[in-house]
Amino acid sequence: CIQDTSHMFFFFQAEDGIRDAQESRGLGDVYKRQVSTQSTWGINQIQIQKINQMEQQPNSNNLAQDAIDSDIAMRVQFDKNSPFFHGGDPTPVPVGGVRVPQSMPSEFSEEPTGPVNTEYEKDEEYQHLMRLRSDFQTLKKVLAKVCVPLESILRHKLKKEENKISEEKLQEHIKEEQQRLVPIIQEVRSYQEIVSKSKFNEKYQQPLDQICTECYKDYKDKEEYTDYSFLVKKIMAQAFADSNVCLQDIKEIKKRYNP
Asked: For the whole model, what pTM was predicted?
């Protein structure tokens, strides 16, 4: 019970752990054992002290009595011997989502719907958008691989500055990471060609060219590399956004066949 000069709030702590596997009448089941440890119709000593303090304050009016009435009303809901146990409804609620309570009606019609028209799957525009959406999702994943070898090179350059590795070891590592970049950039180029045939072409041609050429640049430190990494992340976000645009167009096509 937390009290100030004008308001009072009650917080009830549920029992820790998992609910019993048996059928339940609702959320109140979690309070059962907690209530049984206290007087069903009474109030504990801490509450009595709080109420006594409230009664001694000026302008308390009926706040103390309201607190007692509220506490009793709460407790009788969890007393199996009370007619108000679970609001007087003896119907058990099955666990596991077997039945949706009547107090939670569905927003969807219960009337049976007719068969779904799947002719949209033969629509050329639908097929094109499905492929393009998949291509954008894959392009995003491929772009995420571009920065990995570059950041590895930067880490080895830092080790060289700290004299933890030799120049020969550094150059060897740079060569290995650049070789790792080759198939990644080739994959980016293949998706660049696919996107160039779509309505999204202008968004991607120049940035993807820049990504594919500047990945082999000799970045001295993270500050110099930052602009490049931001560009990669920007195009990744753009690919994700355009895949969602394709999805919305796909939904519109489905609606045309299933109005």
From this structure: 0.56
